[in-house]
Write a structure and sequence with these properties.
The protein is an alpha+beta fold. The protein contains 11 helices and 10 strands. A hairpin with a 2-residue loop joins strand 2 and strand 3.
């Protein structure tokens, strides 16, 4: 049994052996054999012709899927782009050189141990989404556009890594995606290839550097926490200074504040308050006693004051 010829770039098996051509071939051959069996010379000639046409049908009748385009060469020169659907070719004279897939395709690429601008080795994995928009140029301008896209993408990725610092790569990943898309798209435009998007999936740095970056981030967070604590202490001190100035200008306000502190303290059950005699005299004991008695009455247990 003769093996099928090897499929070429972008070629599908459905494009070489399609069901309509095979069915038509079988019908023509059966009809031709039936005419040969009649024994009549004119019908035998017709039967032989039908058998010949049936044998040549798979070579002449081609079918491209909805997403495919066929590059037809006539005697070695570009003739036309055929498809989708059924189309005819002249056996021996015409040749379907390539079957081009026009769907959006993906290509994975990476840069291993690429040095950034600040001489940090990084490993980057990315994926590119692309599509053939000009089948003629994709078939005639370059030999293997799929391999070329992968190589151009990897080269462009290494160039971008070499011109960027590690911090930029980590913080501005979306911007890096856009830069790669523009650079790769400009290089592949002459091949009839459109770059839809480029996405960086992962950026890996050495384990030792990851530990150093973690310690640096922890130190930075501790520094910010200490700064925030210092600012809070400064604000509290300023408020205390403002309060002291107010109390210095108004002794009555100081007395009211002291009485409020005593009242808040007596709200707890069983509280014992010890005050110097001079402080008690300065705070108007009658008013203080009235407040404490009112607080004791509200909870049913009088506190003791000395």
């Amino acid at each position: 049994m003769t093996p099928l010829p090897q499929l070429r770039l972008g070629e599908s098996l459905a494009g070489r052996l399609n069901a309509p051509a095979m069915v038509l071939m079988v019908v023509l051959i059966i009809a031709g054999v039936a005419l040969l069996a009649t024994g009549q010379a004119p019908l035998q000639w017709l039967g032989g012709l039908m058998i010949a046409v049936g044998v040549l049908t798979p070579l002449a009748l081609k079918m491209a899927q909805q997403w495919e385009r066929a590059i037809v060469l006539r005697l070695g020169r570009f003739h036309r782009v055929a498809g989708p659907g059924l189309f005819l070719t002249i056996p021996v004279v015409d040749e379907v050189a390539y079957w081009i897939d026009q769907r959006i395709q993906t290509t994975e690429f990476n840069a291993q141990q690429a040095l950034s601008k600040d001489t940090v080795p990084v490993n980057i994995d990315a994926v590119i989404f692309w599509q053939v928009h000009d089948t003629e140029r994709a078939a005639l301008e370059i030999q293997d556009y799929k391999r070329a896209i992968a190589q151009v993408a990897e080269t462009s990725l290494r160039e971008m890594v070499g011109s960027s610092t590690l911090a930029t790569l980590l913080a501005e990943r979306k911007k890096s995606d856009g830069v790669l898309r523009e650079v790769i798209g400009r290089k592949t435009a002459d091949w009839g290839i459109s770059v839809i998007s480029v996405e960086i999936r992962d950026i890996g740095v050495p384990a030792g550097l990851q530990d150093a970056m973690s310690r640096q981030a922890q130190a930075e967070r501790e520094r910010l926490a200490r700064v925030a604590l210092g600012q809070a202490e400064q604000e509290v001190a300023e408020k205390f200074v403002e309060a002291a100035e107010i109390y210095a200008r108004s002794p009555t306000a100081l007395q009211l504040r002291a009485m409020n502190i005593i009242y808040e303290t007596t709200k707890e059950g069983g509280a014992t308050i010890l005050l110097p005699t001079a402080m008690v005299d300065a705070m108007n004991p009658g008013g203080v006693l009235g407040l404490t008695q009112a607080a004791a009455a509200s909870r049913g247990a009088p506190p003791s004051a000395t």
